[in-house]
Amino acid sequence: MSRSVSRVVRALVALGAPVAALLGPALALPAAALPAAAALPATAEPASVVATTADDGVTVDLVSVTPQVVGPGDTVRVTVRVANGGTAALDGHVDLAAGWRPVTSRETLARWADDGSERTAGTRQATETVEQVAPGTSADVTLEMDVDADLQLRADAPWGPRLMSVSVSDADGVADVLHTFFLFDPVGGTGDATPPAEVRLSVVAPVTGPALDPADPEGYVSDVAALTAPGGALAGTLDAALPDDGGPAVSLAVDPAVAATAATSGDEDALAWSERLTATGADAPDVVTLPVLDTDLAALAHAGLDRSAIAAAASADLGATGWEPPSGWTTSLAWPVGTPDVETLAAARSAGVDHVLVPDGLRTTDGDGVTALARVETPAGDVSAVVADPELSSVLATGAGTTSAGSAPGSAAAAVQRLLADTAVLASDAAARSVAQTGADLGPVHVVAAMPRDWSPDPAALGALLDRLEQGGWVDVVPFSDLLGRTAPAVERQPLPASEADAAELSPATVRSLADARAAVTSYASVADDPATLAGGVDLALSAPLAVGYRSVPEARDAAAAFALNRAEQLRGGLSVVSRGTPTLISDTGDLPVRVRNDLPVDATITVVLRPDDPRLVVESRPTVVVPAGRSLDVPVRVRAIGSGDVDIRVEVLAPNGAAVLEPSSFEVRVRAGWETVGTAVVAAAIGVLFVAGIWRTVRRGRSARRTTGEVVAAATTETPTTSVPARTSEPEDSSA
Question: What is the DSSP letter of 571?
Fold first, then answer.
């Protein structure tokens, strides 16, 4: 069955022959001349009346439209590329059609651009033949349209965008239709002002890396090096922020963890990228900072954490890396994902950020054409919100790079025409709002295009697109920071939901566990002279599972959370109290030694506190000591006993900030008050008794005959000894003598 026959059958089945017959004349009219509901589909889905022909493999894409903005007497030249992805050669024709009425609604623009049907913009204005386009090849075709003769657009016609279409057909019917726009300017004629107002556009792109796996920090370093190497996504993003020709530039929302990793990785390409990113002066890019590791603020908001816990989770310490952000990086931005709600904005306020980017929401209730800034009331206080334009964001991301869904051929040229049309309507709305509200100029409208986190830009294509956008005459591409210094306009906006959690968020229970562990580690690390040295790695590990990048890999996120919690527990096991049995206190006052073991890699300053459960023991000191790394130390605690008994004592080890660094332990002490005094008296009395007894014994026995005193011995040694001679009888003298 041929394509034309099949389309007729489907149309008759869907609507019935009588209805199709009635719609036939209407479909021949220019789309802009029809009521909005009939001229364009209500949604971006393909119309059910006619079928698309994607299966035929023939496509038509826009190459260029010149001039970008046409006036009376001009000729529009539209170049398209017809590609044959089928299996047979293509012989057919290409038709150009355009509407003459201006489009004044961005909703109409969006429906037309996204309409996948074969509708055309109006009557045919130009036709060109295409012959023998072989399978797998393409042909460029240029069509021309005279603004005066073909469209009757002269100096009295209003300024603004018009619908335009290019269709390719063969013998079987229409193969593909391109929906685009052209811009008309009466150039000083009697039509509307030329242009009615200026539109300022800021393009902000995230500089974020992959989710950090705390079990594999080196893998994160390698990933960042690959992203910042020539040809990497972050290298292209930085090139777009620092164009060589000095043309329009994008602004950057930088995750400090990525910048720190690149600056300290040792990889030459990463270091060169870091130097460009952190440059100062005229060569500096326009930068705002994101929370460290691109924290998922929505997950924090919906976990019921208090303000201090949210602030701690969104500001992981990078001190251990030794990297410091440039002094010019003073403005912070939260960039939540998912459905924005008031709770998330309140969490951003608690985290201390300056502004919150709302990627979709907070639309004005009475039209466009206002500055992107808004003030939102939250339970944590007023928040400065930056409302991104989702249509401009999507068109720029697709037209100047590759998103996760890929980009279509010829999307840059189509993006230019769509952006010109969109901003033209914004300019008209801004002028109308200014006159309606005050009768005076309120200044230019400032809109923001926010690129997706997986954006991989083509810097050359982006630069050309932004150049052509500025050449339109009413768009000025300016730094994102220029917007942040302005005052939010007082306009009514659609409210955000109070709270709307996303299924992709980390579970509230896990978020609370990570927050509790972080608080404990922070207190624990204060025992070191430099807490960042002790806890820096653990702090980053506890923040890693909260990264936005983990939303797409929940199983890996769960593993990262488990690893981080286990590592925090291990760190807090570095100090311990060594059990020493059951001591006995026998004095009224004394020291109870508490042995503390330090297995940390740094010296630890601690305070030991004893809390007895019985008033018979009073603790008189709370000693603060430094326990050397890898050593044990006995810490004497002065106590006083009032009575005797067995007392249970709870041991607390505190950090310098007063927080407990260990779970309390306990031991029992036997208090025997007064035993020392009684024992001393008993011993002294015994000695006295023995002494008295000795004296009494000596006195009672007297002096022995066998004992002499010292004086007697001395006198004896100084006298002449006396010899006894026995008496003898007398005899007569010898008569001879």
Answer: H
As annotated, the residues of the chain forming the CATH 2.60.40.10 domain(s) are 27-184, 575-676
Question: Tokens standing for 673?
Answer: 């008050």
Three-state secondary structure call for residue 722: coil
Contact 270, 224 (CB under 8 A): yes
pLDDT of residue 212: 94
pLDDT at residue 64, rounded to an integer: 92
Contact by Cβ (8 Å): 388, 374: no
What top-level class would CATH report for the domain 575-676?
Answer: mainly beta
Q: Tokens 């990262």 identify what position?
A: 560
The Cα angle at residue 490 between residues 488 and 495, in degrees rounded to 5: 90
- Cβ burial of 544 (10 Å; 0-12, 13-18, 19+) is buried
Give which of 628, 589, 581 is closest to 606, Cα–Cα. 628
Residue 124's alpha-carbon distances to 30, 120, 162, in angstroms, are 10, 9, 15
Return the minimum-mean-pLDDT range out of 35-44, 222-231, 556-565, 705-714.
35-44
3-state secondary structure of 443: coil
CATH for 27-184 is 2.60.40.10
- CATH 3.20.110.20-classified regions of the chain: 199-484
- CB 305 within 8 Å of CB 511: yes
| DSSP code of residue 579 | P
Cα(14)–Cα(11) distance, rounded to whole angstroms?
5
Dihedrals φ, ψ of 493, to 5°? Answer: -125, 155
What is the identity of the amino acid at 340? P
Distances (CA, A) of 455 to 115, 234, 236, 418: 25, 9, 10, 20
Question: Which residues have CB under 8 Å from 319's CB, separation 6+?
Answer: 532, 533, 536
How far does the chain reach from its first CA to its final CA, in angstroms?
198
> How far apart are the C-alpha atoms of 479 and 201, rounded to whole Å?
8
User: What is the C-alpha separation between 353 and 336, in angstroms, rounded?
Assistant: 12
Tell me if 427 sits within 8 A of 373, measured CB to CB: no
Determine how many CB atoms are found less than 10 A away from the CB of residue 680: 10
C-alpha 551/C-alpha 539 separation (Å) is: 20
Question: Which 3-state string (H, E, C) describes 689-709?
Answer: HHHHHHHHHHHHHCCCCCCCC
pLDDT tens-digit map of 322-342: 889 999 999 999 999 988 899
CA 196 to chain centre: 40
CA distance 26 to 160: 25
The yes/no answer on whether domain 199-484 falls in CATH 3.20.110.20 is yes
* Residue-wise pLDDT tens digits, 391-444: 999 999 988 875 444 444 457 889 999 999 999 999 888 877 766 555 444 567
Q: DSSP characters for 197-256?
A: S-EEEEEEEEE--PPP-TT-HHHHHHHHHHHHSTTSHHHHHHHHHS-TT-----EEEE-H
Cα dihedral 517→518→519→524 (10° resolution): 90
Return the pLDDT at 31: 36
Asked if residue 515 has pLDDT above 80, the reply is yes
Q: What are phi and psi of 437, to 5 degrees?
A: -85, -45
Q: At what angle do helices 531-543 and 554-571 cross, to 10 degrees?
A: 160
Neighbouring C-alpha atoms within 13 Å toward the C-beta of 322: 4
Handedness of CA 223, 225, 228, 229 (dihedral sign): negative
Structure confidence at residue 123 as a pLDDT band (50, 70, 90): confident
